[in-house]
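This section describes the prediction task in plain terms. A model, or a person checking by hand, is given the sequence of a single protein chain and must write out its three-dimensional structure as a string of tokens. No templates, partner chains or ligands are provided. The sample shown here is typical of the held-out split.
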Amino acid sequence: MENKKGLERIESPRYIFFGPNAISKVGEVLQSLNVGSPIVLISGPSVTRAVAEDLISSLEPDHKFIHVVSEHGRTEDLINSLRISNKVGASLIIGVGGGRPLDIAKLLAAELGIRYIVVPTSASHDGIASPAISFTLSREVEERLGRVKPIEAPTAILADTTIINRASPLTFKSGFGDLIAKITAVRDWELAHKLRDEPYSEYAASMSLLSAKIVMDHAHEIRARLEESTRILVKALIGSGVAMSIAGSSRPASGSEHMFSHALDMLSSEVGARTSPHGIQVALGAIMMAYLQGQDWRAMREKLIEAGVPTTAEEAGISPDLVVKALTIAHKVRERYTILGTSGLTPSAAEKLAKVTGVI
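The expected answer:
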């Protein structure tokens, strides 16, 4: 029987620049977009603040900027940014940072109904090119404001590999881990499509898997943090983000392995334990979920090791008890059908899974 689809809408970035000195293209993008003033620029409080200040200096006085520092990347920062943006009549939002500042920029643009540009300072996750934001922040905003307005893809991405190459080596490992997780995320999506008739985009799935394959083929070079390997990592992260834009959801990039990571975050917050970077946690989850899915988890693990990514809870600084507990509650983190099903894993099955795969 023919599967008739309704009208589909794809939102993707209008401009993407990546490579050395890509940040210099911001002025060209602003001119092309015919952006007025003022422009609200969101950055973090430390390294990204310096990048933001340099960017502002290079573009003034042609454009007027209001620089807002997101101290913690929490709901309070969003509310403060929203108050300032409404007061000055912001025409555009620019987010400069590795994670939370970009999330605040996305949320702010959605609240104001205006466009935004992202200038990533690290390659730690694929949110640099997608409308997706941190699951934890999304829950926090929803609890405080009652809803999260729909977020569109960024209008432009300017990924300067010279700047990104200066980031902590841990960010490269996290970015690699986030990408390798697409292998299990897409398999979960296929499963939901077959068992729950969930909408599925073969094109978005293929793009997501290609992003994972590209970095796996260059695992050793990415570990070395060469300029060319940084370019490869950034390109793959952008590809994964665009796949989400095509799918209209985070399905191509986030499955059971992300739910495991979210569960870890929740449990760690409850007991006051530290978390590992997002991409490293989902990499651990991907190893275990690949085992459950019947995929070649050993090959995945070998590529993670080749890229210098932790493959055990001990290496990631995570308590084995939290890993097991997270596996038992991951299926309840969000309403998304995955290999974990609707009842999840029993404590004994969770412990066995983590031990068989060498995670604990």
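For orientation: Residues 33 and 353 are 51 Å apart (CA to CA).
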